[in-house]
Amino acid sequence: MRKYLFRILIFVFVGPLLLFTFKSYAYDDDDGAFQVWLTTSQDVKAFQERLKISLEEEFRWGDEGNKFYYYHLDFGLAYVLNKYWDIGGGYREVYELSNKGKYNGKFQEENQPYMLATLKLKQGKFSFTSRNRFEYRHFDYKPDSWRYRNKFTLKYPLQLGKINIEPYIADEIYFSCFSGTNQFNQNRFSSGIGVDITKNIKGEVYYMLVTVKRSTGWYDSNVLGTKIKIVF
Question: CB count, 10 Å around CB of 223?
Answer without folding.
Answer: 21
